[in-house]
Amino acid sequence: MQNIYLPYTAEITRIKQETPDVKTLSLRFTDEAVAKNFSYKPGQFVEFSVLGEGESTFCISNSPTRPVRARTPEVSDGCLRQPGSNGASIECSIKQMGKVTQAIHELDVGDTVGIRGPYGNGFPLENLKGKNLLFVAGGIGLAPLRSLINYCLDKRGDFKILTIVNGARTSKDLVYQDEYENWKKQKDTSLHLTVDCNEENWTCMVGVVPKILEQLKPTCLDSAVIVCGPPVMIKYTIPALLKLGFCPEEIITTLEMKMKCGLGKCGRCNIGNLYICKDGPVFNLAQLNKLQYSI
Amino acid sequence: MSEDMQRIITKEELNAKIKELLKENEIIIPKQLLNKGIFYQKILDTDNLVLAEGFATEPIKKFFLEPSSWIIKEGKDLEQAQTKRIIIGARPCEGRGLELLDKIFDAEYKDNFYINNRQRTLIIGLACDGPDRCCFCASMGGSPVEARGMDALLYTPLENFMEHKGNSLTGYTFADKYIVEVITDKAKDIFAPLGKELDAETKKNWQKDKEKRINALQKKISPPESMDDIFQSDYWKEVSQSCLSCGVCTYLCPTCHCFDLVDEARKRLRCYDGCAFADFTLETSGANPRPTKKERYRQRVYHKFDYFKKNFGENLCVGCGRCIRHCPVKIDIAEIVANAPIRL
Q1: What is the sign of the dihedral through the CA atoms of B114, B116, B121 and B122?
Q2: What is the ipTM metric for this complex?
Q3: Measured between beta carbons, which residues in chain A are less than 8 angstroms from residue B77?
Q4: Chain B residues in contact with A9 (beta carbon < 8 A)
Q5: β-pairing, B121-126 with B152-155?
Q6: Helix (H) or strand (E) segment spanning residue B235
Q7: N or C, which end of chain B is more exposed by having fewer CB within 10 Å?
Q8: Residue A49 pairs with which residues in a beta bridge?
Q9: pLDDT, tens digit, for every residue of A12-38?
């Protein structure tokens, strides 16, 4: 019988400094069989560990349609497309916050880390098909959405209009900046960037995400919205979305809570009788209301 | 599994058998430790063997889900312990506790450490002959005389029990005779050659005696059918006010299983943790979804009497009373659940 707590080993093939405190790490599984068979959905997460320092939960931030090409640590410009293949390698974007993330930030290309997963339900891709999608991200909350956005772009025919609203405290805190141009260029796709306070030379929008949504007035018809960001952003974004006419079933979010096992055993991430790790992390607002989860 | 088997065996027979089993097995029994209480411990010989008659402070959970155990060493898997173990004298509530833990650790994602511990351990229980004031197993779908989750159950002789008055917390003599109810084939191998079959008269008396022992339970509660409507109630604040967040309730509970994964040098440990602690859900950002004792205590009550019931159809409580017996501020979860308001 397998040890469910034993991670796969993965080598860091690339490290990209996204913002002053966020790094994106590209990982290649050491075991070829694992690399070949590891498949996931946008919105799923992994338990990422540095032995001796600890284990933390991070979403997989690249789309399974865009696996990071293995054995190319010298590639510097990000994702190379290999549509249709399984996610041979994965990317995680990690903000320096505590003990484990500090240890991760100290790692170099070539270092080995532990990865368990993929865990969680991921985004309801089938339900999203054929709809207009509104992506609302705050700060590092863009990480799981980036996986989904690129997935949708690679299966463009399955979705209608894609609208991305991405907010950060300052322009320095905007992650995945090198992907913005590509997103804007895509057919029926728009990107709205916003920062909390005005800055010199800033040409995009200014204001917190709920305010921007009120200005943009995205259509709720035939639409679903996917929200991810810090709790305070979600708290004020949900009422704004309800006001715009989105129904609770179409407001989808991915939750975060302290997790240890990722398997629904360690008891931390209960919401109602469900576990965020096992039954989530993706829920719609109707489900959360039923679970008496207060955002 | 073949049909049930019951035997009457003598103390001498059991002792001799234990001595024989000691050659190839670790034997664990509840032992009275001076001024400390009763604790399950490994025995090295059968001299002066006594099965403590009261309730062990810690449940046998610790032999299956250790307070802390290595799960990874030097980045590699650990070898599973192979030693065969026999626990003698565990109480029916503890066997049931394991059955409930099986639903978590021997389910969707199988915990090989737990399962290995289960597989290498034979449990010979000891039916309770006198409940204490905190016991309420019958209210939780259990019974002081059932063998669920165990391989066999010893039953103290009827004549002794008839003379027995009050609770048995103070006396601990190894009875002269036992009725043993054999459940699994593994236990059958041990007990089949011992003692003799029960005659019809003894069987009849035994059934009567079982009922008597069940009826001796004073504490009876009926948890509410649903607590959905009172999640936001201030009741949870009131009842958790005196909680010291010491976590003894979770540590001693036969079914509490929340754990932490902790790294130490190049090893990773799985350690007990509990919802009573403030840092259990504290996030790095400083946010805490269960910021006060109200949310934390409510989580414990709901996990046991609502969430688990929704997921598995049973309460995650066996009514052993340990959390009540050992709570420094006398919080009584049974009373709290029984007295919960129906609506906000």
Answers
A1: positive
A2: 0.86
A3: 3, 6
A4: 75
A5: parallel
A6: helix B235-240
A7: N
A8: A55, A114
A9: 999 999 999 999 999 999 988 888 889
